[in-house]
Amino acid sequence: MLLCIDCGNTNTVFSVWDGAAFRATWRIATDARRTADEYFVWLSTLMGLKGLTIDAIHEAIISSTAPRVVFNLRVLCNRYFDCRPLVVGKPDCELPVAPRVDVGTTVGPDRLVNTVAGYDRHGGDLIVVDFGTATTFDVVAPDGAYIGGVIAPGVALSLEALHMSAAALPHVDVTKPQGVIGTNTVACIQSGVYWGYIGLVEGIVRQIRMERDRPMKVIATGGLASLFDLGFDLFDKVEDDLTMHGLRLIFDYNKGLEA
Question: Where do the annotations place K(+) binding (predicted)?
Answer without folding.
Answer: 130
